[in-house]
Amino acid sequence: MAAYSFKHNQRKKYGVVTLTDCRSILDSPLSSHHFGFYHLAILNTHLIKGGEKLWELAQKTYMAFANSKNSNKHFSDMADLNFLMCKTIENPGLIASSSLRTSFMSVFEDPVIDQSNDMQQEVGLEDYMGCASVHGVGPSIAIFDTIRDGKLDCVCVYPAPLHSREQMQELVDNMKAVLVDAIGANYVECEIHIYLTTWLLGVKHL
Predict the structure, then answer these.
(1) pTM of this structure
(2) Are 155 and 144 in contact (CB under 8 A)?
């Protein structure tokens, strides 16, 4: 969205946190059926320039994440990230509006693939969403993406009152417009569902 809205001579840095499931790379490896939170975070900053195309930018940002993961950045940076998080909690005034938000967005590495089944229809379940929230220090926005019945289905979780619903609705509308525009004429139909939900956040000095 920044690349689409910026002029060609404009540029700005953004931070993205990607959560990666570490079950398969532990010693000994665990299966996805083991309950618990086994995610580690990789923080990448990206210099976004006006006029960049979506898929080129997506490839650039994903390769930055993949290179970080291949170099075990999620393990080597763990102590530094924990230290910074603790300092942020101890000194919230260092963060804009004392909001304890340390990056713009959090996403998950592995998409969730979900298909409707007969049991859902039998119990009358028409729709549902899955998400989680983190209390304390963390990213400003979390995106939980699912491919459900072949359609992109996202839940956008944001902290209130740091962000208003109107502000987030405008963000979501812009996200959908950028995705549809990037898909272009290659697809006749495109169905994208993005839901908004909030978690309460104690914010000072707003």
Answers:
(1) 0.65
(2) yes
